[in-house]
Amino acid sequence: MAAGSVPPMTTSRPAHADQPEHVRATRAFYDAIAEDYAETFRDLSAASPLDRALLAGFAELVGEGAPVADVGCGPGRVTGFLASRGLDVHGVDLSESMLAIARRENPGLRFEQGSMFALDLSDGSLAGLVSWYSTIHTPPEDLPAVYAEFRRVLAPGGHLLVAFQMGDEPRRHVRPWGHPVALDFRRMRPEPVAELLEEAGFALVQRTVREADTRQGEPTPQAFLIARVPGEEQA
């Protein structure tokens, strides 16, 4: 605003006021629990070796040095793992508190605040995109818009990895670690997710389901889909 100008006579609104309620609720939830979440799930090497193998395989599919976005990166543990596999990867997340941890834990990597509904990326600018349990707070009716946005930013031949918990009913988490917040964690089936990805213009490459890892406290099986944007022959 120029010096001496008069501000408009309107009530100020938060910067995120026009975003959907579920987006604002997700941001508030993870802003509140960021430090506890990061401490609890700090070490990717403690996770399932099958999950690490799948991420490593995805990195090999995409190719060393390829531009990749980890969308819904949280504290950045998957982002860091993919960087260690030679990808030119950056993280995107709604929660500034999560991003602060990601930057602290991965000082050589880039992390930006943003929404999967409107990524600040040019059309076809990525060779890979990872959505590691980041669509699980999105209402089913909004998933086509998310997958269309993923498709927009991926170049021909680019790969998408989507991970989510299997099931039919959402699980509501209330007051995690004592924080006064709550959020729905939506479970999905691989078949309808694969159909939505194909409708968005992807070709399915791999569909993987593993049983729940009870040592990690998982209550349900986990699903992982890898899809590819057609249009360029793989080397």
End-to-end separation: 53 Å
- Overall average pLDDT: 88
Query: Poorly predicted ranges (pLDDT <50, ≥5 residues)?
Result: 1-17
Give the beta-strand count: 9
Largest sheet: 7 strands, mixed
Secondary-structure element order, as H and E?
Answer: HHEHEHEEHEEEHEE
Overall radius of gyration: 18 Å
Structural class, please? Answer: alpha/beta
Strand content: 15-25%
Helix content: 25-40%
Q: Outline, from the CA principal axes?
A: globular
Order of neighbouring strands in the sheet with most strands: 3-2-1-4-5-9-8
Quickly count the helices. 6
Note down, in words, how this protein is organized.
37% of the residues are buried. The N and C termini lie far apart (53 Å). The protein has helices at residues 21-40, 49-62, 77-84, 96-105, 143-153, 190-199; strands at residues 67-71, 88-93, 110-113, 126-132, 154-165, 171-174, 182-185, 203-210, 222-228. Helix 1 runs parallel beside helix 4. A seven-stranded mixed β-sheet has the order 3-2-1-4-5-9-8, sandwiched between helices. It has six helices and nine strands. By secondary structure, it is of the alpha/beta class.
Give the secondary structure arrangement, pairings included.
Blueprint: H1 21-40, H2 49-62, E1 67-71, H3 77-84, E2 88-93, H4 96-105, E3 110-113, E4 126-132, H5 143-153, E5 154-165, E6 171-174, E7 182-185, H6 190-199, E8 203-210, E9 222-228
Parallel strand pairs: 1-2, 1-4, 2-3, 4-5
Antiparallel strand pairs: 5-9, 6-7, 8-9
Helix pairs in contact: 1-4
Region (Disordered): 1-21
Protein name: Class I SAM-dependent methyltransferase
Pfam family, one: Methyltransf_25
